[in-house]
């Protein structure tokens, strides 16, 4: 029997910091409001010539190096992004594969917004368990600053840029295996969080050269309520189905959208503070990159140890949601 093991993690955060104070000179907001309502203090912004693929490559190089595998052993790359280098094609995953010097392997993107990393984890698991692939590089990479409207205080205070990557490999040792991954979606809530312009269903005027906006729009308060409800329900279900008590989770790694959402879900699960991984303060919401960036944070702090159990939980535009029970199983 083949299983999928979570071997390694890597992440990259661009150098430039956009603080709450900076934002308060751009829109009608304040450090006090943003901190109180979201827990965010600052976020990173990629340079003009730094694309989503560049962020992804830096995270991927670290993940590959830490996996102990040779780069050439990677046989598939899947990238989760809503801010690809190019709208439609080529996919960011193919650009990343070439920048890594890995031509001639399977590479594709998926779009599941902030749930992207949980979705690509489920894809890697399925490809490996079916025997089709052995070592899958999964990457959540976002240059959200390229689709953020910096005149809209309801969204621009939340989002930032960054990337996280992981190597998922085949194993025959069940103790190392990813236990379960849940994914779900409901398009009935599509209008809560969307980029309404630029696609075939949009009001975008392709004949008007000035109409180029592809910005995110969000009904923040409604999204907040659905997020708390959906995230809590999903983690309760995955724990119950796998007969795992929340007390035995070493690291709860939620999507970093808003500290108040994370706190509400953590409280519902009766988690201790030391079980909950938080990076929202320094990176804001980096969509599909937020969970792997948070895992990298505990890895680099030395608090993520071999064999420890992570519970991942995400929610985002679509709507999409997902959760996963993942032991950390490095080779070394
Ligand atoms: O990652 C995927 C999913 N995304 C999320 O999960 C995000 C979910 N939503 C949120 O995080 C929160 O809804 C926000 C942080 C976006 C907004 O917080 P809120 O507590 O839901 O505020 P609100 O939208 O209910 O607005 C409350 C007040 C309003 O003023 P009035 O009508 O009470 O006078 C807003 O106009 O706060 C005002 N407001 C702001 N004030 C200062 C909204 N944004 C700001 C701002 N600075 N940036």
Notes on the protein architecture:
A five-stranded mixed β-sheet has the order 1-7-6-4-5, sandwiched between helices. It has one domain: Thiolase/Chalcone synthase (Peroxisomal Thiolase, Chain A, domain 1, 3-Layer(aba) Sandwich), CATH 3.40.47.10. The protein has ten helices and 13 strands. The model has no long low-confidence stretch (mean pLDDT 95). The longest helix is centred in the C-terminal third of the chain and has 22 residues, at 220-241. It has helices spanning 20-24, 31-38, 52-67, 92-99, 116-129, 153-156, 220-241, 259-268, 280-283, 290-301; strands at 3-12, 16-19, 42-45, 76-80, 106-110, 135-143, 161-171, 180-185, 193-194, 217-218, 251-254, 309-316, 320-327. A hairpin with a 3-residue loop joins strand 12 (309-316) and strand 13 (320-327). It is an alpha/beta fold. Oxa(dethia)-CoA is lined by residues 29, 33, 37-38, 114, 153-154, 157, 193, 220-221, 223-224, 227, 257-258, 261, 285, 315-316.
Helices and strands in order:
Elements: E1 3-12, E2 16-19, H1 20-24, H2 31-38, E3 42-45, H3 52-67, E4 76-80, H4 92-99, E5 106-110, H5 116-129, E6 135-143, H6 153-156, E7 161-171, E8 180-185, E9 193-194, E10 217-218, H7 220-241, E11 251-254, H8 259-268, H9 280-283, H10 290-301, E12 309-316, E13 320-327
Parallel strand pairs: 4-5, 4-6, 11-12
Antiparallel strand pairs: 1-7, 2-3, 6-7, 8-13, 9-10, 12-13
This protein binds oxa(dethia)-CoA (UT7).
